[in-house]
Predict the 3D structure of the following.
Amino acid sequence: MLEIKEIEALIEGLLFASGDVLSLDKIAEIVDLDTKTTKLILSNMIDNLQKSKRGTLIREINEGYQLCTRHEHYEYIERLFESRQKQGLSQAAFETLAIIAYNQPITRAKIEQIRGVNSDSSVTRLLERNLITYSGRLDTPGRPMLYATTDEFLRCFGFKNIKDLPFIEMSIQAEGEEQSEEEYENIKFDV
Amino acid sequence: MLEIKEIEALIEGLLFASGDVLSLDKIAEIVDLDTKTTKLILSNMIDNLQKSKRGTLIREINEGYQLCTRHEHYEYIERLFESRQKQGLSQAAFETLAIIAYNQPITRAKIEQIRGVNSDSSVTRLLERNLITYSGRLDTPGRPMLYATTDEFLRCFGFKNIKDLPFIEMSIQAEGEEQSEEEYENIKFDV
Amino acid sequence: MDNSTAELYKIKIQNFEGPLDLLFHLIEKSKFNIYDIPINDVTDQYMEYLYVMNELNLDIASEFIVMAATLLHIKSKMLLPDKKNVDEEEADPREELVTRLIQYKRFKEYSGVLRQKEIEWAKVFYKFPELIEKKKIYDDIDITVNELVNIYSGIVEGNLNKINKKTQIKNPVIQHEKVSLKLKMKEIIQNLADKMFIAFSDMFSKKKSTKKEIVTGFIAVLELARQKKITVKQKKQFSDILIYNKKVK
């Protein structure tokens, strides 16, 4: 049995060598502790790294962990790399992604219904970027495919898991004067 | 101008993101300090990491620097790179194994002759799984390789040595007459 | 074009994501109350927009036409209330449209949130995994000693039966093709691992290689080129083919 500081160092080494997201289960297995304890240690490490003046942070992504650099070093680190040409997503793709993220799993038909337009090309683009994936079929006639977001989505958008998606208290700007107080209170956008 | 702790964090971030050896010049350029000062900071970081209970170390390599894991974590980190092979052995592989076990050492050509089909992929699989091994060459034209079972084979079947292999009551000469006398002597179907 | 169509022309430049996007724009522009949309005005504006699109010979997506029909339907319903239900509290014919508009608006806002988050998290770097060869761990083999013995007895017996009783000669073993496409492809990749390029002619020893092997090799080269794993160059017709490692520029 290792000391706690030793375990922390070991976990850091594991995350470093892995480079990728490492599942909590795998870490727990290697350090030979139960997942609950391991999770506790990792939470503690996340906090300490966040507070510390250190070069890396630990991110939690869907029951896994990954080392990454700090936002504030972006401009410096960027200079190490030739411009990363990353093609951005179109407005249509962002809308489609938002609909999938907040309603997963969801069918193409439903996406189309919410957006009011055919969204096939956006769905294809998001699949290509590995931001969404197939996640089974709906048990209705035709058994349509369902789509859900991926871990890559969580990574790219900085979420720990799907529950981490921000909730917006939105009030639709209904600027017409006819708007009554009462009506305002009825506007709730629960996700 | 950044504070020293900030610079250290930044350098760590740079080394992390780079993944590779980063030259002193490049680091100095990015943190915007002269190389002498940068080198001093790095020497200090190397010492501190060495002394600390941390997961990574900085190595100096030919006027450059690289982050790496600690020696003492080797056995743990190694386990990250293990992949468990679920795939069992095929009937063809078992046949090949049985033939090798009862006729070792034996050439591929002979195995093929006994099985009646090309057995190269089975032999490869068995070599991969360390159930058989090369055991010299036959002193005939072409000097074909010979195969024999391994200690791992003995372990799998709980044998002490190859003589533990059950005797088969069957004395046959399954080969055609094209077989030369000499070759016949090499074929032992009964042990 | 009069002034209003000219103005609409400008709007179309904005490239709406769909009919809901356009409707929302019209409502916001005129500061209409979304819960009490003046359906006549909105429908007129919407139709005018489609009209201009048409005038400009722009492709109008079918969804825009469907929405136009929906708007006209709502308009007619509002003009001619259902007489049967006059006493009861009648459902507002606009209700469904309003629900859809609000739902759409919500996701449009969420898409903005995601956009922000992406910008923020694009500023973080990760490290590539260490290139350590995977060590394979095998489960124990699932066969007993008896089974192994039986397999062997089976083979031996089978071979005995194959021996022609009269001549005592075993039926000849069929010679199988020893060069598989897959193996050849693997071989080429392995050969290229530490080289910039190899010549096609160097892939085969002139004495030992059979025609079949050379043909298989050629097909392997074509297949790898198709998979973009190698690049192939030939200076002129019938000259040697050079096979380049894709990783080397």
Observations:
- Chain B is about 45% helix and 15% strand.
- Residues 4 and 41 of chain B are 8 Å apart (CA to CA).
- The longest helix of chain B spans residues 35-51.
- Residues 171-191 of chain B have pLDDT under 50 and may be disordered.
